[in-house]
Design a protein that fits this description.
binds 5'-O-[(R)-(carboxyoxy)(hydroxy)phosphoryl]adenosine, 5-stranded mixed beta sheet, binds zinc ion
């Protein structure tokens, strides 16, 4: 089954064609990152306009690259939530029009479920149930993926997402937007014990976590140094910060492995590209005799291939939509009826 998948929830316009959930025939992306960089973050109105400009050409390019024609497409999938509402709407309207014109089913996909689905492409043998650490720019959670379209959330961030904190700290260090990857690169040159930074303590739900205290502590440290004219060890700060984020996430994942008895743990979302988190989760899982699934860096950030992968399983579960499909800025991953 060839699924034409569309993703436009933030600052990447993406169209892919994925066969039966696992085989990527093409994965086209038009990134707007350079455009938003001068503003230090995504400007929603610009994002929507650029999606409109890019999406038609990108779909043609996808067909060309996959050496397919429109007749070979069996369904159209799209990120319908969550994201910047104007940006998501562009993809949803394009997908609705394409599905209507082709006379094929329309499959709405939750963006975060798509991030999890990136693992199905990277690991053709991966099947639920498994644990998943979701770490993106807007979401941070530990979920139990009980089936392809059924999940249980064990814990989430109670305030900021991990990616948001990486970006905020990188921004005050004058790193270009989005700063997570640049901060990660710098961290690899530094001493992770250089600056003591707080770790989120377990609360009523031990899987829940908080990042705002860590973010504030890092920002205060930087601002204080600037005010008193003290020179900071930037690689050391980046390494200390990355270690604190990882120390907040990874022990909770380890606890989830122990308590659920699940020996498979996947990582998903843009921050899954972080070298410290990748290293620590591998070590923690190995100690517990669990296997780790991590998408290659190219599938960690936003892309349409992951949407096409998850869409196949949504289709099998009967989760299709009609022309009344709407776009949503926020929506739970748990999959209430659309
Ligand atoms: O999943 P994603 O592409 O978009 C959302 O769905 O939010 O995640 C983007 C986030 C950004 O905050 C970006 O800075 C972060 O992922 N990111 C990283 C790394 N690469 C991307 N954060 C830390 N280390 C990285 N290597
Ligand atoms: Zn994303």
């Amino acid at each position: 089954m060839n699924i034409l998948a569309v993703e436009s929830s933030c600052d990447e316009t993406a169209v892919a064609i994925v066969r039966s959930g696992r085989e990527v025939l093409c994965d086209c992306i038009a990134s707007q990152v350079e455009l938003h960089r001068i503003y230090g973050g995504v400007v929603p109105e610009i994002a929507s306009r650029k999606h409109i400009e890019a999406i038609y050409g990108l779909a043609d390019q996808a067909l060309l690259q996959a050496k397919l024609t429109r007749k070979d497409i069996d369904a159209v999938a799209v990120t319908y939530a969550p994201g910047l509402i104007g940006a998501v709407l562009v993809g949803v309207n394009f997908a609705k029009a394409a599905a209507l014109a082709l006379g094929k089913p329309l499959i709405p996909v939750h963006h975060i479920r798509g991030h999890i689905g990136a693992n199905y492409i990277a690991y053709p043998d991966l099947e639920p149930p498994f644990l998943c650490l979701v770490v993106s720019g807007g979401h941070t959670m530990i979920a139990e993926v009980t089936d392809y379209t059924k999940m249980r959330i064990l814990g989430t961030t109670l305030d900021d997402a991990a990616g948001e904190c990486f970006d905020k700290v990188a921004r005050v260090l004058d790193m270009p937007y989005p700063g997570g990857a640049a901060l990660d690169k710098m961290a690899q040159l530094g001493d992770d014990r250089k600056y003591p930074l707080p770790r989120s303590k377990p609360g009523a739900n031990p899987y829940d976590m908080s990042f705002s205290g860590l973010k504030t502590a890092a920002l205060n440290l930087i601002h204080h140094a600037q005010q008193v004219g003290e020179e900071l060890d930037i690689p050391g700060l980046c390494a200390s910060f990355s270690a604190a984020v990882s120390d907040t996430l990874v022990p909770r994942v380890a606890q989830a492995i122990r308590e659920t008895g699940l020996k498979k743990v996947a990582v998903a979302g843009g921050v899954a590209a972080n070298s410290r988190i990748r290293r620590d989760i591998l070590a923690a899982a190995e100690a517990l005799d669990a296997r780790v699934y991590m998408p290659p860096l190219s599938l960690c950030g936003d892309n349409a291939a992951m949407i096409g992968a998850q869409a196949y399983y949504e289709f099998l579960a009967g989760n299709t939509a009609d022309m009344s499909l709407n776009a949503y800025a926020t929506k739970s991953i748990l999959g209430e009826k659309i």
